[in-house]
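Two entries, shown back to back:
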Amino acid sequence: MTLIKSISGIRGTIGGSPVEGLNPLAIVKFVSAYATYIRKYIPVTRRKIVVGRDARISGEMVRHVVVGTLMGMGFDVVDIGMATTPTTELAVVMEKACGGIILTASHNPKEWNALKLLNENGEFLSAEAGREMLALAETEAFTYATVDTLGKIIIDSRYRERHIERILNLELVDRDAICAANFRVAIDCVNSVGGAVLPELLYALGVKEIFKLHCNPHGHFSHNPEPLPENLAEISHLMTQAKADVGFAVDPDVDRLAIVCENGEMFGEEYTLVAISDYVLRHTPGHTVSNLSSTRALRDVTVRYGGQYYAAAVGEVNVVNRMKETGAVIGGEGNGGVIYPASHYGRDALVGIALFLTHLAKSKLRTSELRTTYPPYFISKQKIELTPGLDVDAILEAVKKRFAGNRITDIDGVKIDFPDKWVHLRKSNTEPIIRIYSEAPTADGAEALGHELIRLIRTAGAY
């Protein structure tokens, strides 16, 4: 069993002994530490915390433990039920709550779950806040409420509709244009919460024909839940069968968006953010941000509109902080995560769908034709499994030494920039692996660069 503590929250597999995995004892400890942190550092007029969850099989069990612990710490809990990650983030702000917890392990398989921890702005805790919270958990330096100061539970299932309403009111979302385009849309929601909310959003946007795959939110994922090409064969096949104009696939908590062209080919998860940024920058000139592992195509599009591109360390909180520092009008991550500040500072596949459909409608192009308007880059994503004897620091130093003559960025692992390509090596925040991402003008070139790094690691005797 596995438990991972990082800026992405507390993530682990369900079951096992009391000292391993995301079991009830671990949940109580970390939620108590989080509540203690909120009580100590977040100035609020009311002690209220929002809780939402995806459709995972373990979600109901985890919810009961989380809600009970928060009440035991003296906090009122606004339970919004089954909700997307961005919906929960928005609910924190709308409720004027002092924090929020999202119960989801994002793209991890069904045996995983996680506590994603939010501050009073509905944003992920900073690295510093996360360290403080973990220190509180280690020392168990928390005090529970007396019987007269226990929290209460408030059930509110209206936030899905409120989220959709906010999207419809965004200035750059044009429902009339989408409706007039008469799009036929296919969706794959991997039997999680997206199956409930995506059809509602699409109908609200004026889409009349929707072809659904795996939209029953029972938590038994129909395939590997990460929205990567190798996991999306069914929707790819459906596109041509249904003569759909565009397809959308989301992960279990609906903060990542993959787009499928009308011919069944993948638009490319890296290009979700690129295309939406193209549309936003066309109407709202400004700067952009993505993480170090994202495509150079966003930089190219940003420069085209006279803006400046900035890179951030991997992790939503790092991208958000960089966006705020630079005043970016759009940003996100190359895994299909779109962050649009006009809505809120969080990855939101629902906002991404609305902006992309507006862009597609106004372009008068087919989805595959729109894709060809962007700079062609290819990314290879490889990984090395972490083992007890693997020295990550030694690996990073060996890579820096080997490529010392090139531009090196080491704010998050090591990234080497060459004139026409790059490679980024870093330890994952969500899985026990080292990720090796590389990009080049050709798929073979990107793959070869990634393999070169793996050979270097093996030659150095670090792997």
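entry 2 starts here
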Amino acid sequence: MRIRTFLSLALALASAALLATAPGAAQAQDKVVYHIDDAAHQALAALRNMRNQLDTEPGTKIVVVAHAEGVDFLLEGAKDRNGSAYAGPVSALRSRGVSFEVCELTLKSRGLKKEQFIEEADFVPSGVVRITQLQRQGYAYLKP
């Protein structure tokens, strides 16, 4: 009886593996949340990583959550350490489906206004709460 049960289980696993790799089998969409809390040290690398990720896996769903000093690269006129504006790469990524979410608690604590941010920025009540929600929804967590 044990051998029959083992063989049945082995056959079921082999069938499942074949179905999963068959052409047309449903593929799960990759979902990633990029956590940025220090724009000066993380934003440039994060933008580059997102571009590379989408070049390799165009269907990836990417959400960027910024809080604390991480929101700075989404401010109007913000530039990287090389003097290049962040707005161009952010806009290009937004056109590829990336969303950029700014923590409203950070705005309050730093005395910032929504009007100071580029148009690609969306706002969430709490950055860390949003990251937690996304992780519960199956998003992989990356912190560049």
